[in-house]
Amino acid sequence: AVPVKLAPSILACDFTRLGEEVKAVSSAEYLHVDVMDGLFVPNISFGLPILAAAKRAARPSQLIDVHLMIERPERYLADFASAGADSLTVHVEATPHLHRAVQLIRALGKRAGVVLNPGTALDTLRPVLADVDLVLIMSVNPGFGGQQFLPQALDRLRTVRGWLDDIGSPAELQVDGGVSTENARALADAGASVLVAGSSIFGEGGAALGLTRLRAALTQ
Ligand code: DX5
Ligand code: ZN
């Protein structure tokens, strides 16, 4: 099996120490940046300046993975690309022009991701599946960190893993929400190639330890 990559979500970090927190997780393959507009989700997180700051603090080759929980994300793709995103992930529920959004991300030279809320039919993914670099399955309803993992995500991951393998797609399969040492192994077994984790990494004992613990849970 391919080794699973980790994507610490800075939503759970101590923002008074953003630079140090980002450096503490520099051994992770990805850095996950959650942008919320208070409209697509019932919360506002942060936007372009924080992304740019996180990018400056990150390891230069670390993949800056931007999860856009915003309505009509196509309006801001160019801005997030210039602010430091390497991959841009848009919700299928957030735009009537999903395929156009994917094309736009690719035209900006970035990796294109699509993401589904827990209540959204997986079929909405199929028309763009061959054109994306990343599929994200939400395992909580987006908007907040620290929520409980929804176990139906496991079956959804298995289904999408099958679809990607059927078409020979190299796209990453990511899962986000409630990821912990308890479920990391099962998520990898269900076909996830990237685990996003906020509160389980930036918790007690510091982010470096949180990252090590999650990595250890994967090799058990
Ligand atoms: C939720 C965000 C997640 C969040 C995950 O809307 O998309 O990336 O940071 O946080 P945890 O890992 O605490 O569930
Ligand atoms: Zn996220």
Structural account:
By secondary structure, the protein is α/β, with parallel strands linked by helices. The protein has a single domain (about 5-220), classed as Alpha-Beta Barrel (TIM Barrel). About 30% of the residues lie in helices and about 20% in strands. The chain has helices at about 20-25, 50-55, 75-80, 100-105, 150-165, 185-190, 205-220, and strands spanning about 5-10, 30-35, 65-70, 85-90, 110-115, 135-140, 170-175, 195. Strands 1-8-7-6-5-4-3-2 form an 8-stranded parallel β-sheet. The chain is globular and about 45 Å long. The protein starts with a strand and ends with a helix. It binds D-xylitol-5-phosphate and zinc ion. The site of zinc ion has 6 residues, from strand 2. Pathway: Carbohydrate degradation. This is Ribulose-phosphate 3-epimerase. It comes from Deinococcus irradiatisoli.
The Cα radius of gyration reads: 16 Å
Number of helical elements = 7
Helical coverage, percent range: 25-40%
- What is the name of the CATH class? Alpha Beta
Question: What small ligands are held by the chains?
Answer: D-xylitol-5-phosphate, zinc ion
Strand-residue proportion:
15-25%
Give me the CATH superfamily: Aldolase class I
Envelope shape: globular
| Number of beta strands | 8
CATH architecture: Alpha-Beta Barrel
List the quaternary state of the chains: single chain
Average pLDDT across residues? 97
Distance between the termini: 14 Å
Strand neighbour order, sheet with most strands = 1-8-7-6-5-4-3-2
* Main beta-sheet annotation: 8 strands, parallel
Give the low-confidence spans.
none
Active site: 34 (proton acceptor), 176 (proton donor)
InterPro entries: Aldolase_TIM, Ribul_P_3_epim, Ribul_P_3_epim-like, RibuloseP-bd_barrel
Keywords: Carbohydrate metabolism, Cobalt, Isomerase, Manganese, Metal-binding, Zinc
Pathway: Carbohydrate degradation
